[in-house]
């Protein structure tokens, strides 16, 4: 066996061990009784330490160095070159982190997430503050030991989720997006036309929502023989490995879009996980490119497909039959407008396509000073409300509708939020490319045929794993560099039609 083969064998073994922690993490958010939090934190901390020890061992370093020496290639994009490049990146980053820090992050974040669930329920930021302070301190320490060159501490955390991306690059992209979005949103608000969204707040029985959402997720390509759908306080997707991908959503009888589009969103993540090459599990070639690319898949299915006119041309009659009491007197056109309504709202995961990105900008602009120390965790609610009022013209009435609404900070996910808007940008460019390659996608969706798009995504994105970094993948697939303008063009075209702009 060559050193390269031995390296891949060890990487797969580490990934198997890591996936055991993912199962426990999923169970913590779905079925674990609250009393098990302390014990679960200890379990996950132990596993995180074991994974870290294996992933930073001198033996793994020796295998990697030997494989790099013996597997030289003239093609930097070959699968072998990609595996070595990304294995080196991960090894170098991991070896900078002491096991103590890895275990403490895992333990604190597990307990922090449990505290967040209750604090959000009670809308009491003060109850979550001690945990946020610990998480921020640990993540600052991580940024310091990982390093960030000539950049800023936030770069070290962003790089974990979007390799190679810097805060400066994100700031430039977001500035262009903001400058286009703000006047578009103002134009929509000022046009004086709004749908009656109370239609979406009628009674939609949860059991029927579950069945309808599951059927739609199946139709777009999520394989429930290799996955399942459960409930959680905050929707998420967990890919444990080949044949086992878990989705979660949350239901509200009087808010149809939440669970339905949340299910499509998580199914998009799940389709990506199920589309990875199972033979490459545990290696970079069997791992998703970045969280921004992952988010592009969920946002593409949720918004570019699920909120499209063509999608509801196919599905609205089924929706009327399923929710006959709520939708009997509602036309397809009215329903389409309602699920694409644009107006400032407090909750990110329920936001429309246009204002959603402002939610991300707000979080990005708060995370950077949190990491640098310029914003104290205790001052987050006031800073949040001030920025929210500035961007949306409304002020959150409670912490639950403000700074406590997202699970990410409780789980240590500082640096994660930018990937959502990056994902929207990636999605717009991928969707344009798919339309060029596949022809009339609207006609296919209206006929209930989503297989060509899913197959195109499998071949062009999912099965490539980490062959390319995200920016390079966009160029390979679309022929263009990452740009905010295709997203703006998509939004302007959609809302100009709906609002008669």
UniProtKB/TrEMBL annotation:
Reaction(s) this enzyme catalyzes, per UniProt: Release of a C-terminal amino acid with broad specificity, except for -Pro
Cofactor(s) the protein requires to work: Zn(2+)
Coiled-coil features, chain-numbered ranges: none
Active-site residues from the entry: 266
Residues that hold Zn(2+) according to the record: 265, 269, 295
Catalytic EC class: hydrolase
Molecular function terms, GO-annotated: metallocarboxypeptidase activity; zinc ion binding
SUPFAM superfamilies: Metalloproteases ('zincins'), catalytic domain
Reported function: Broad specificity carboxypetidase that releases amino acids sequentially from the C-terminus, including neutral, aromatic, polar and basic residues.
CDD domains listed in its UniProt record: M32_Taq (cd06460)
PANTHER family to which the protein is assigned, alphabetical: CARBOXYPEPTIDASE 1, METAL-DEPENDENT CARBOXYPEPTIDASE
Protein family according to the UniProt entry: Belongs to the peptidase M32 family.
Cofactor comment text: Binds 1 zinc ion per subunit.
This protein's UniProt keywords: Carboxypeptidase, Hydrolase, Metal-binding, Metalloprotease, Protease, Zinc
EC number(s) reported in the record: 3.4.17.19
Key word Hydrolase present: yes
Name of protein: Metal-dependent carboxypeptidase
GO biological process: proteolysis
């Amino acid at each position: 066996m060559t050193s390269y083969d031995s390296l891949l064998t060890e990487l797969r073994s580490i990934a198997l061990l890591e996936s055991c922690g993912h199962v426990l993490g999923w169970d913590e958010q779905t079925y674990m009784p609250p009393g098990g939090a302390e014990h679960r934190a200890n379990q996950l901390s132990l596993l995180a330490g074991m994974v870290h020890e294996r992933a930073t061992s001198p033996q793994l370093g020796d295998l990697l160095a030997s494989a790099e020496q013996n597997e030289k290639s003239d093609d930097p994009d070959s699968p072998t070159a990609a595996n070595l490049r990304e294995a080196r990146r991960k090894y170098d980053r991991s070896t900078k982190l002491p096991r103590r820090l890895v275990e403490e992050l895992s333990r604190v974040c597990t307990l922090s997430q449990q505290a967040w669930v209750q604090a959000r329920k009670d809308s009491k930021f003060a109850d979550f503050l001690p945990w946020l302070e610990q998480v921020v301190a640990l993540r600052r320490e991580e940024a310091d030991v990982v390093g960030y060159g000539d950049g800023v501490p936030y770069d070290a955390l962003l790089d974990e989720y979007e390799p190679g991306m810097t805060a400066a690059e994100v700031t430039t992209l977001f500035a262009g997006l903001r400058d286009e979005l703000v006047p578009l949103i103002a134009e929509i608000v000022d046009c004086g036309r709004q749908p009656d969204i109370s239609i979406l707040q009628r009674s939609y029985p949860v059991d029927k929502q579950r069945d309808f959402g599951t059927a739609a997720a199946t139709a777009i390509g999520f394989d429930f023989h290799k996955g399942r759908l459960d409930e959680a306080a905050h929707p998420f997707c967990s890919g444990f490995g080949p044949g086992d991908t878990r989705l979660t959503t949350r239901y509200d009888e009087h808010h149809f879009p939440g669970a339905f589009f949340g299910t499509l969103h998580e199914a998009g993540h799940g389709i990506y996980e199920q589309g990875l090459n199972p033979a490459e599990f545990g290696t970079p070639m069997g791992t998703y490119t970045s969280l921004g690319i992952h988010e592009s898949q969920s946002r593409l299915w949720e918004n570019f497909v699920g909120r499209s006119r063509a999608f509801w041309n196919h599905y609205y009659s089924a929706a009327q039959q399923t929710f006959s009491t709520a939708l009997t007197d509602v036309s397809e056109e009215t329903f389409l407008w309602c699920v694409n309504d644009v107006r400032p709202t407090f909750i990110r995961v329920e936001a429309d396509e246009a204002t959603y990105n402002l939610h991300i900008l707000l979080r990005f602009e708060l995370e950077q000073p949190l990491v640098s120390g310029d914003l104290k965790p205790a001052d987050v609610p006031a800073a949040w409300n001030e920025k929210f009022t500035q961007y949306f013209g409304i002020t959150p009435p409670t912490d639950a509708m403000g700074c406590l609404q997202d699970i990410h900070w409780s789980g240590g996910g500082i640096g994660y939020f930018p990937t959502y808007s990056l994902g929207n940008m990636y999605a717009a460019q991928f969707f344009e490319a798919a339309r060029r390659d596949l022809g009339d996608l609207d006609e296919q969706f209206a006929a209930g045929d989503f297989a060509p798009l899913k197959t195109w995504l499998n071949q062009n994105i999912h099965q490539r794993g980490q062959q390319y970094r995200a920016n390079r993948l966009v160029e390979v697939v679309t022929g263009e560099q990452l740009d905010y303008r295709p997203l703006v063009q998509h939004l302007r075209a959609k809302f100009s039609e709906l609002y008669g702009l």
